[in-house]
Amino acid sequence: MEVILTGTGSPLPDANRAGPSTLVKAGDTHILVDAGRGVVMRMAGAGSLPGLLAGVLITHLHSDHICALNDVITTHWVMSQGKATLPIYGPIGTAEFVDRQLHALEPDIGYRMEHHDVLTNPPLVNVTELAPGNSFALGDVKIDTAATEHAPVRPTIGFRIEHAGSTAALVGDTIPCDGVDELARNADVYVQTVIRRDLVEMIPVGMMQDILDYHSGVVEAAQTAERVAAKRLALTHMVPAPTPERYPEWIAIAAEHYSGEVIVGDDLTTVTI
């Protein structure tokens, strides 16, 4: 299994980091978790494309995690010449969001259907809304869900992906909670979005201070990884985003609380398990 960080950015625009997303390659099964800005280009860089996806998994409906889902849907539709259905899984509210995306795309869909005889129908999507504790399979890949905590965003879920004896936990934006522990326990890689509390606290902007109460800090992520015996901790969606020369500092902070491997993610960082 390959876990590829196709977007390690945040809502703050960054020339080097696409919006939050992670691509999992499990054999021939490609699964996308979240769809932040620029995801389709990063998928191409990771040797995948929307037309190859077995499914899209959404952790929550914050715009930075879903704003490029329309690009994924459109590109999948065009690549399959309108013949394939894109499965999308997410929390309650996902179906309404996808419906609104398709409504927004109606002019483009109409133009393309008029211009290309092969496109005889709009994009085909199959949305499944998940409750915490639901399990399902995409091919021979098993996926479990659990509740995360990112209030006031509700509901939010994370995913545990298992294939051929390997396990990846992708939990999205959350503070430490029982659901994260359940998903990440003994995982080969636990992918966590993080902030540096010490740095964010020094930013004199109210909206930045607001993010302190619903994201895991580096310390909390490391403590979780240690508590659940995850083999690797991959940090993504980092705020404020570090430059490479600061990566050792982030790793050192995590290493004070976690004995496993710590990975500070760049776009297209790949963890092979």
Overview of the structural elements:
This protein is α/β, with parallel strands linked by helices. The chain has one domain: Ribonuclease Z/Hydroxyacylglutathione hydrolase-like (Metallo-beta-lactamase, Chain A, 4-Layer Sandwich), CATH 3.60.15. 29% of the residues lie in helices and 30% in strands. The protein is built from ten helices and 15 strands. The strands form two sheets. Strands 7, 8, 9, 10, 11, 12, 13 and 14 form an eight-stranded mixed sheet that branches. Strands 6-5-4-3-2-1-15 form a seven-stranded mixed sheet, with helices on one face. A hairpin with a 2-residue loop joins strand 2 and strand 3. Helix 9 crosses helix 10. The radius of gyration is 18 Å and the shape is globular.
Element layout with pairings:
Blueprint lengths: L1 E6 L13 E6 L2 E5 L5 H7 L7 E5 L5 H4 L2 H11 L5 E6 L3 H11 L1 H10 L8 E6 L5 E4 L2 E7 L9 E7 L2 E5 L7 H7 L4 E7 L1 H4 L5 H5 L5 E2 H11 L3 E8 L7 H9 L5 E4 L4 E4 L1
Parallel strand pairs: 3-4, 4-5, 5-6, 10-11, 11-12, 11-13, 13-14
Antiparallel strand pairs: 1-2, 1-15, 2-3, 7-8, 8-9, 9-10
Helix pairs in contact: 6-9, 9-10
What separation lies between the terminal Cα atoms?
Answer: 5 Å
Highest-level CATH class: Alpha Beta
Radius of gyration: 18 Å
Determine the strand fraction and express it as a percent band. Answer: 25-35%
Number of DSSP helical runs: 10
Average pLDDT over all residues: 98
User: From the helix content, strand content and strand pairing, which structural class follows?
Assistant: alpha/beta
N-to-C SSE string, H for helix and E for strand: EEEHEHHEHHEEEEEHEHHEHEHEE
How many strands appear in the DSSP assignment?
15
Number of domains: 1
Major β-sheet annotation: 8 strands, mixed
Shape: globular
Which residue ranges are poorly predicted, with pLDDT under 50 across at least 5 consecutive positions? none
The third-level CATH topology is: Metallo-beta-lactamase, Chain A
Please identify, by name, the CATH architecture: 4-Layer Sandwich
What percentage of residues falls in helices of 4 or more residues?
Answer: 25-40%
Assigned CATH superfamily = Ribonuclease Z/Hydroxyacylglutathione hydrolase-like
